[in-house]
Amino acid sequence: MATILLGVSGGIAAYKACSLLRLLKESGHDLHVIPTASALRFVGAPTWEALSGHAVRSEVWDDIPGVAHVALGNSADLVIVAPATADLLSRAAAGRADDLLTATLLTATCPILMAPAMHTEMWQHPATQANVDALRRRGVHVLDPAEGRLTGSDSGPGRLPEPEDLALAAQALLAPADLAGRRVVVTAGGTREPLDPVRFLGNRSSGRQGWALASRARDRGADVVLIAANVALPAPAGVRVVPIETTADLHRAVTEAAAEADAVVMAAAVADFRPAERAAEKIKKADGVDPAPIALVRNPDVLADLVAHRRQGQVLVGFAAETAASRERLIEWGRAKVARKGCDLLVLNDVAEGRVFGEATNEVVILSGEGQVVAEADGSKEAVADAIWDEVAKILP
Ligand code: CTP
Fold this sequence. Notes:
Layout: E1 3-8, H1 14-26, E2 30-35, H2 39-42, H3 45-52, H4 68-75, E3 78-84, H5 86-94, H6 100-107, E4 112-116, H7 120-124, H8 126-137, E5 141-142, E6 146-149, E7 155-159, H9 163-174, E8 183-189, E9 193-194, E10 200-201, H10 208-219, E11 223-229, E12 240-244, H11 247-258, E13 263-266, E14 273-275, E15 296-298, H12 302-308, E16 315-322, H13 327-341, E17 345-350, E18 361-368, E19 373-380, H14 381-395
Parallel strand pairs: 1-2, 1-3, 3-4, 4-5, 8-11, 8-13, 11-12, 13-16, 16-17
Antiparallel strand pairs: 6-7, 9-10, 14-15, 17-18, 18-19
Helix pairs in contact: 1-3, 1-9, 4-6, 5-8, 10-14
The structure holds cytidine-5'-triphosphate.
């Protein structure tokens, strides 16, 4: 996806930048780290090289023919400086270029995100505040530090925000704002149909693709409702999560949320059938008696119901996880399903041999409502989510 330069200056919070690096790598980005000489006293080059997969330099004097500060600055989609110390903010505000990081800040034309971290007195000092003002006036995104425990026994504003929050801020700067002002609903996970108070019929959906869809829609500016069927993942920040269990719950929740939505993406694996009876007590086995067969009844088709009641201009997206023997077969089944369901887009994936479930990656073919292949995507579930939102954004009125 994006090329990100992670500048690290010399503060104790440099260790947290390792987690930030990992989070952004897991989202599929390519990261290059530029530590200052003092950052390397806190976390050494081998750590940055192992985590990023790239060589690490601090000075403009290394790799002279490559003119690293220009090459790196020009190649980046985003520069993050975390932690940004008082000294780094001062040098950046003055436009100095006395090491590779500050020189690169002068050649970068992409967005720059800085996350200051220092003792409260240093943060509140008028010199630091003037530097932050100057940087912000120039368009640099300078985050306010978090409050809390600092290096010693002191506490107050000056902490580096948690890596998850920094990753969110970075993703928001990278994403196009093409869903700004849009309301979207995503269903995720798999519905469960209880047999008794302790047993259920369910499926293997982990909810990770739906989670990625919700997070990327948020990054692209949408107001997101995430209807979560039995998902054991932490709620994505800034997204309203509605936990549900059964297909009937999902039907109710999605019908309510869809009444206001510009787009609904049905990524959840919805149980087509439920036990005809739900025992009030745990079902007991009796010696020598064969178990009774489980009678099933049909659940409503939620997506078909959304199609029947859609708001004007609303975009409806279905998913189809199939176990097809070939790509042609997959597309053939997809065409039949999109025609039957009447949705605007159908995201097809092949889940033969347990592929996809619970994994971080996915591989999909996206069909239009007319059954044409409009996009294909593979990679992280975030990258696949972006490909889906790209198609939704194209057809939103
Ligand atoms: N879906 C739904 N309600 C159901 C079943 C499925 O809304 N009762 C949605 C799913 O969320 C998905 C799409 O419909 O977005 C296709 O799901 P799938 O199970 O592949 O469709 P079915 O019509 O049940 O087809 P199949 O007979 O292949 O299971």
